[in-house]
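In response to the reviewer comment on reproducibility (Comment 2.3), we provide here a single inverse folding case reported in full, input and output, so that an independent group could reproduce the run without further information from us. The structure tokens appear first.
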């Protein structure tokens, strides 16, 4: 679905992506991991077309990303940031409707009447009943991020790019958010690429992980291949144990204290 070939990206004299080669197949759930400043967000921005690489190319279904118009691209891919929506005064239902923008004509109208049913389904899937008429600024951060996910769902993308989407959520809402994304991904055979800071959540929900350090890919593979003490040490310079999750059969990290036991 996506092919990244020899991508280089610089800001001023700093090269932040160096020779990135990567392929994403339809239906994959990828996590991008790596330390602060390693280029994760920049790579996501190159995939969404927000940033253009100086060298190399990104293609979406065989066609260079740069040749897609903005509206055509937003019918294919959607992006959700850390704090997906600011605390503005728009009511929840209206914010969900904004997700339909790529399908509206110049008068802001959509052909057919499928959108209402779709929005109702999203409201019930995300448990937003009762919040539909409330303005965003009265919601909690966790509720607001659920609405942000709903707006992205309303866009009916084939590819979803998530940039640290659970950063401001407590552990209950982190789990809930990732479960919602995961069930949506399975139901619609979506392709998901998520920048993940929490390696344990990444191991639980991503099928494949790409590890970046200093703008280069240092490892790619399944969570079992990537979430190892050696790779984690090489990325983050921390010592950790890796244990198997008893239910899910994926690795989970336990950090080791610098003082020992
Ligand atoms: N718009 C920009 N202008 C100048 N430098 C930038 C810009 N965006 C990113 N950078 C620099 O590029 C490097 C990579 O940044 P990027 O945000 O991609 O890293 P990251 O891995 O997502 O980091 P974090 O985990 O802290 O979010 C950093 O050194 C950053 O300062």
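Designed residues, in position order:
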């Amino acid at each position: 679905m996506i092919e990244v070939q020899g991508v280089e990206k610089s800001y001023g004299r700093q090269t932040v992506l160096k020779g990135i080669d990567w392929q994403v197949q339809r239906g994959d759930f990828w996590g991008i991991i790596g330390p602060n400043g390693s280029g994760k967000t920049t790579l996501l921005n190159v995939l969404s077309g927000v940033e253009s690489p100086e060298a190399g190319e990104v293609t979406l279904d065989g066609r260079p990303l740069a040749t897609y118009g903005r509206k055509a691209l937003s019918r294919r891919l959607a992006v959700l940031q850390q704090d997906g929506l600011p605390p503005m005064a728009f009511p929840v239902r209206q914010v969900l409707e904004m997700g339909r923008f790529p399908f509206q004509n110049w008068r802001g109208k959509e052909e057919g009447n499928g959108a209402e049913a779709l929005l109702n389904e999203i409201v019930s899937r995300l448990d937003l009943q009762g919040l539909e008429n409330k303005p965003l600024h009265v919601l909690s951060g966790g509720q607001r991020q659920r609405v942000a996910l709903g707006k992205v769902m309303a866009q009916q993308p084939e590819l979803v790019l998530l940039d640290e989407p659970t950063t401001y959520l407590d552990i209950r809402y982190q789990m809930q958010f990732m479960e919602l994304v995961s069930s949506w991904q399975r139901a619609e055979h979506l392709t998901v690429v998520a920048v993940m800071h929490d390696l344990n959540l990444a191991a639980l929900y991503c099928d494949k992980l790409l590890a970046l350090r200093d703008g280069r890919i240092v490892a790619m593979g399944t969570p079992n291949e990537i979430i190892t003490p050696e790779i984690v040490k090489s990325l983050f310079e921390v010592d950790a144990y890796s244990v198997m999750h008893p239910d899910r059969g994926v690795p989970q990290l336990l950090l080791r204290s610098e003082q020992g036991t």
